[in-house]
Specification:
Helix 1 (about 5-15) crosses helix 2 (about 45-60). Strand 6 and strand 7 (about 115-120) form a beta hairpin. Helix content is about 35%, strand content about 30%. It contains four helices and seven strands, in the order αββαβββααββ. The protein has a single domain, classed as Beta Polymerase, domain 2, CATH 3.30.460.10. The protein has helices at about 5-15, 45-60, 90-100, 100-105; strands at about 20-25, 35-40, 70, 75-80, 85-90, 110, 115-120. The protein is of the alpha+beta class and about 120 residues long. The strands form two sheets. A five-stranded mixed β-sheet has the order 1-2-5-4-3. A two-stranded antiparallel ribbon has the order 6-7. The radius of gyration is 13 Å and the shape is globular.
Amino acid sequence: MRPLDKAKLCLRIIKERKAIDPLLFQVEKLTSITDYFLIASGSSSRQVQAITRHLQKRMREEGFRPYGIEGQQEWHWVLLDYGDVVIHLFYQPFRDFYDLEGLWIEAPRVDLEDGDLVGG
C-alpha cells in the first residue's frame, strides 16, 4: 500500500470515532523518520483512548501493526508509528500547547477531501 493510501486509511478510521480537526502533513522531504504525519484531537482523554484502540484494531484487521506506541499512560498525547505514517492523537489542550502544526508549518498539508497537496 502506498504511504498516502495508508495515511488516508488511518484518517478514515479515526473519523469513525469522531476525531476532531484531523490534519495530514507530507513530511518525507523534511525528515527521514516518516512520510506523513496525521494529527487529530479528542475532546477528552477517554476519547483519545477510544480513537487509539479503534485505530489499532482496524489497522490490525488491515494487516498493519504499529512499530511503536507512546503515551498510553495518561492519554494526553498518543503517538502511533506505522512506519511511513505517524499518527499523533491529542487531548485538545495538549494539542494547543505542543502546537505540532506550528512546528511543521513548512510541511505541505494534504487536502483531506481530494488528497492533493496544499502549499509546500
